[in-house]
Amino acid sequence: MSRYFQREMETMPVEQIKELQSEKLRIQVKYVYENVAYYRDLMDKKGVKPEDIKGIEDLHKLPMLCKDDLREAYPMGLLATDLKNCVRIHSTSGTTGRRVVAYYTQNDVSLWEDCCARALVAAGASNEDVCHVAYGYGLFTGGFGLNGGSQRLGCLTLPMSSGNTDRQIQFMMDLKSTILCCTPSYAAYIGEVLKEKGYKPEDNHLKAGIFGAEAWTEEMRRDIEKNLGIKAYDIYGLTEISGPGVAYECEEQRGMHINEDHFAVEVIDPETGETLPEGSKGELVFTSLDKEAFPLLRYRTRDICVLSREKCSCGRTFIRMTKPMGRSDDMMIIKGVNVFPSQIETVLINEGYAPNYQIVVDRVNNSDTLDVYVEMKAEDFSDKVKDITVKENKLRSAIKTMLGINPKVHLVAPKSIERSEGKAVRVIDKRKRLGITI
Ligand code: DLL
Questions:
Q1: What atom of ligand 1 comes closest to residue 210's alpha carbon?
Q2: CB-facing half-sphere around the CA of 301: CA atoms within 13 A
Q3: Residue 296 and residue 372 in one domain
Q4: Cα angle at 135 between 130 and 140, to 5 degrees?
Q5: 183 and 142 Cβ atoms separated by less than 8 Å
Q6: 21 phi and psi angles, rounded to 5 deg
Q7: Do 186 and 283 share a domain, yes or no?
Q8: Which of 327, 343, 358 is the last residue of a domain?
């Protein structure tokens, strides 16, 4: 079994990666300047010409793009090629305003599938595996992305899509799925249903899972690994930059390797936009290096993380990113304190609860309130008010220690919080209905 899908690229010496990136960047910038009027205007306004970009060290001279640019340019303002050359679109789930539509040529799809195949191999997959894809298929990139990677690798691919958990489990058992691809919250749910049906972790044939598309903590990883009896790998990506497979974990599991032959990465200060040195915490910015249909230069992701070029024992030389430490727009400011949902998740799992929770933020009498609803595990379920109050107080105090603010904790009956088959909705911020800018 090979450790790499495309060894030459994945283990290329760093100097050579930089040279390759420089060469591709020069071509990509010229291509975008000539074919995307929206970006050409941004470059002209900044006084940058394609000839000014001599190599990857000049990346910082280019203007940045953010989600608002993509919305403004909707639906085709950032398309760099004729529509007749495109074979596919995908789109973001779009919480507010216009959706973002990304376009792909056949070549774009092919490179993207290579990236997903690399992620599968890094998680130990080969053409002997049965790859169970339970990410949603459709406009969301998860299903099609991993499906393409799995087929490219030669796995038997099960295009399950999300939902219908009983059927997922039946196929998983009958067809002996060995690799599970879905969101971490859906993996947790599948684990829960397997247990309810009386299966033990060793009864399934799974050996690894490739989970991403939403934030998940190390505690949640351990929980899923225990319940499914697998090794759980993280995978990162975003529709704008192709989909899953922009970065992925190897067996070392110390950050996700970014496919630097296709994407150049920077970390910037989200306030000033200034590029930060490696090792600093900041917002990830990606530049596609060889896209034909939807090449974005310096796209601001809003994902906060740290990059590291430290040598990895897996032999891959691509730079690594930490798990996103929440999106800058995921962060809630409650009573003036910055709060990420992942901090609350960490406390819950450390205190022995399953990752079934919902956070409700509101403003009452001009003061922010934080309510955390958490399911009790079936075995801990009690209908004695006193028992519940003691547990709620313990959890409240643990969350207060983590955040510095006092939440209201509500322990609720098992199965009363809706399960997620795709990206879980963890936070309901009712302050938004009041028109409060947070
Ligand atoms: O979530 C692509 C994807 C599909 C990635 C399947 C991994 C697996 P979008 O729907 O455009 O694309 O959402 C992108 O999701 O900016 C992050 O904030 C978040 N995200 C993606 N992967 C991770 C991860 C897909 N592993 C947005 N950990 C990104 C934390 C993630 N957040």
A1: 8
A2: 27
A3: no
A4: 135
A5: yes
A6: -65, -40
A7: yes
A8: 327
Same domain? 214 vs 354:
no
Report the greatest alpha carbon distance in the chain. Answer: 73
Q: What is the pTM of this model?
A: 0.91
What total number of domains does the chain contain? 2
**Alpha helix ranges (H) inside 155-304:** 165-174, 184-196, 218-228
Residues 308 and 393 in one domain: no
Residues 86 and 144 in one domain: yes
Q: Are residues 303 and 429 in the same domain?
A: no
b/e per residue 146-161 (b: at least 16 CB within 10 A) = bbbbbbbbebbbbbbb
Pocket test for ligand 1, best of 238, 249, 283 (most atoms within 8 A of CB): 238
Residue 256 shares a structural domain with residue 401: no
pLDDT in tens, 308-364: 999 999 999 999 999 998 666 677 889 888 888 888 999 999 999 988 999 999 999
Task: Give pLDDT tens digits for 374-385.
Answer: 999 888 887 788
Judged by phi (left if over 0) then psi (alpha if -120 to 50, else beta), residue 209 lies in: beta
What is the rounded CA–CA span in Å between residue 117 and residue 325? 25
* Residue 376 CB neighbour total at 10 angstroms: 19
**How many Å apart are CA 234 and CA 254, to the nearest integer?**
10
Residues 121, 262 contacting (CB under 8 angstroms): no
- Which sign, positive or negative, has the C-alpha torsion 166, 132, 216, 330? negative
**Domain match, 274 and 409 both:** no
Angle 208-255-21 from CA coordinates, rounded to 5°: 110
Distance 239 CA to ligand 1 centre (A): 8
What CATH number is associated with residue 64?
3.40.50.12780
115 lines ligand 1 (CB under 6 A): no
DSSP state of 65: B
How far apart are the CA of 158 and the centre of ligand 1, in A? Answer: 21
